[in-house]
Amino acid sequence: MKHLRQSRYFKLAVTLFLTGAALIVFYRIATDFTGFRDILYTVESIISPFIYGFVMAYLLCPVYNLTVRKTYRHIHLKNRKRAFSISKLIATVVSLLVLFGVVGGLIALLIPELISSITGIIQTLPDRFDALTAWAEDVASGFNSPAAADALDSIVRNIEDGVLNWVQSDLMGRIGTYMETISTGVIITLKTALNVVVGVIACVYLLNSKEKFRAQLKKAILATTSKSVSDEIFDFGNFANRTFGGFINGKIIDSAIIGVICYASMTLLHLPYPALVSTIVGVTNVIPFFGPFIGAIPSAIIIFLVSPLQSLYFLLLILVIQQLDGNVIGPTILGETTGLASFWVMFAIIVAGGMFGFIGMVLGVPVFAIIYYYAGRYIRRKLERKEMPQDTNEYIEFNKYDINRKDVL
User: Residues 53-94: pLDDT tens digits?
Assistant: First the structure.
């Protein structure tokens, strides 16, 4: 049997079988994408607690490791295994306190501000219509043509009547539909809350057992692959961890700083809803490149309903903060974490965001950075075998400009 497995024909048969199976699976996915997507959604809903747990454990890992490192040195017990267990217990408690503190703080900060903003918008909406009507009347009085003035006044009246009719007929008439939607939302919220609770438990297990899980995975890889392949797998894992860890942790710190700066600036300028708006700006800042603008648009609309002039001040403030983040704070914290040029960052965000939504916009950059790195390494190896230069500048030409490449590079 061993000789059969080592036979060239046996290996060829296995290769053909696996290739055929992969083609069949690909064909089924291509011809029945909806069914395949439903299967993915079902699997995702089942394992979502473990996904939450993995994400929380990955983000809390630096806090956990730092706490274990610090406490283990200060626990003076002869039984070092017991000292290590106590350090892990303390690190688990500290990590959970950080998690609950951040989430609870955001909830305590946002909920009152959100209620206040909704109440304020409802209360100020009639005044805005009155102000719009008064403005229209002032503008109309400056027209020499009575027909033009009547037309402008009619447009304003129609807008006001249309909004009021929508509130009275459509909005109030669909209370039953809205209640059903709210009930469904409550059920989904409760299910999500349960998944989060299970995710927290999984997070605790992952934090305390990550060394063992890593050892088991390493043992399986070493047992099933050659040394060269296993070395490549370990190298890939370490590089991916550095790229993801550096980028995600750096963006979280960067976004937190931007949120604090935005809150302090809005408070000094007496702009409305500083906590709510600063949280929106901070969260969306996790998205590279487009993040500040994505957060600024809904925030500016919220402020506009209170004061159009303050909305303009806010947009100018966001422009200043974005420049500060892009030129000072971001490069200082992130450095060259991804190694991607600005064009490829924008490309990764647009493509990944279009395919996977918000998660794709956040994770698209580090994923593309890994692909870019290994594609570049593969090309460099091929060029090295052909004894050709590996520096990209060697292939840049400026003949169309009548410029010598060596003069400008």
Answer: 888 898 899 899 999 999 988 888 888 888 899 999 999 999
- What is d(CA 268, CA 259) in angstroms, rounded to the nearest whole number? 14
Q: Are 330 and 254 in contact (CB under 8 A)?
A: yes
Q: How many CB atoms lie within 10 A of CB 302?
A: 19
CA atoms within 13 A on the CB side of 360: 12
Residue 317 and residue 272 in contact, taking contact as beta carbons nearer than 8 Å = no
Helices (H), 166-226: 172-173, 175-224
Q: How far is CA 158 from the centre of its chain?
A: 42
Q: What is the pLDDT of residues 265-297, one digit of tens each?
A: 989 988 888 888 888 888 888 877 777 778 888
pTM exceeds cut of 0.70:
no
What DSSP letter does each residue of 104-170 carry, written as one string?
A: HHHHHHHHHHHHHHHHHHHHHHHHHHHHHHHHHHHHHHT-S-HHHHHHHHHHHHHHHHHHHHIIIII
